[in-house]
Amino acid sequence: MTGESEGLKNILEVKEFVRNTIEDAKVKLDSALVNNPKFEEVLYKEINYLFYKTGDVKFTVTIADDKKSITLNNYSPIVDCSNPAFNGKNKAFIRTVIYLDNKDLVCEYNQGVLFDRNLLEQNNLRTGLQYESKLETYYALKFYDENGIEYSDNSYSDIYHFDNPSSEIDLRERTMSSFHKPVFNRYTLASIPIHVMKASVRNTYRKNGSLAIIHSNTGTATTKGYKDVNSTLFTCHPLFPEALRGQVMIAKTVEDENKELKFEIVNNYCESFEKAFEKARNEFKAGMEDSHLKEYNKRAYDFILANI
Fold this sequence. Notes:
The protein is of the alpha+beta class. The chain has helices at 3-28, 31-34, 39-54, 117-122, 171-176, 273-288, 293-296, 298-306, and strands spanning 59-63, 69-74, 91-101, 104-116, 133-144, 150-162, 199-205, 213-222, 225-236, 246-255, 261-265.
């Protein structure tokens, strides 16, 4: 079979898998989850992302007994590493869970990738540490309300070194245990897990009553807690009002004379915070008229207008 034929076969296989998985989920899952305007889109994107990461559809798909969640597990190696030399030459575990939390739709992503020391050193990645394998973790959690409006998006990534080779490590257990996996929060940076090296952490959100303003917090999690924490405020992009997509940065935290953080308006957006928030709301409301949200999710459109 030629490469072109093999590629076409893979595309058709993915399309069939996506279609079958979504249709099966819509029949078996709780109607409150399925009827969320974002459910099908989120599930579709997650399946395709897993295929992009691993190059196959060897997933296990599980519907919870209470019908309130669907879980995708994949143990295939990652094929889109930052260094192409590592593509397919790793041990990986990925789990995506889409579930109901009260009335919210939540999408949870968990990824652990193991590399053997020999492979890393063959590609000039040496360190003074004594180890046999390296684990790279990545976690993400997104919240959508019952109208399909995204209001919280979180991520956490870290790196660990082990004395054991990858063949001796239970990667699923390592990835999913509280030793490495953080506890995310809707409106604050994640709670740090038991083991942490130097994790990059982000928390982005907006709240009802100010949906035109996006808050973004970033920081580095260490064994001594968070450091280098920064916060910024953005206007929400009016062409994608249901998504947490920033448009213009309007403020960021800076240190005052007492080394305490405070917000400061940037980009000459406005002369005061009161006027900045009013300007952002007005621009967002006016710009929403050019979005397509009203056409495919009027419920979300009306809710956002009422809660800008």
